[in-house]
Amino acid sequence: MHDTKERFSLLWTFALLNYLYADVVALFDIAGSRNSFEPLPQWALMGSAVLMEIPIAMILACRLLPFRANRLANIIAGGIMTLVNGYLTFVAPLTGLGRPPAYPEYLFFATIETVATSVIIWQAWTWSRVEGSI
Q: What is the pTM of this model?
């Protein structure tokens, strides 16, 4: 039988690797661009750091937290990451509040990331105490 805590940790690792590789692809795009690049403001860099710390911390938290706190942390962290990713990928560009619409490779990663965090939310939501005590 599989361990639920291990599964959550694995899902967060999967999501994190997708976030990171999407950023690597974006850096290759910026480095290869002939357009001038304006550095991000400090608040954006700090926000990005905080946002990436969520899946990093959840990899460990999934293994250490007791059932109730673990379930709640996965629902909240998964919700935050899903909402932020959805907003930055789809809402902000379409409303003119953010960068132009994303490139296909970024949409590819964003879709995988959103599915991964949605699965985390669903798995945590349906996680029962009986399974949590195993």
A: 0.84
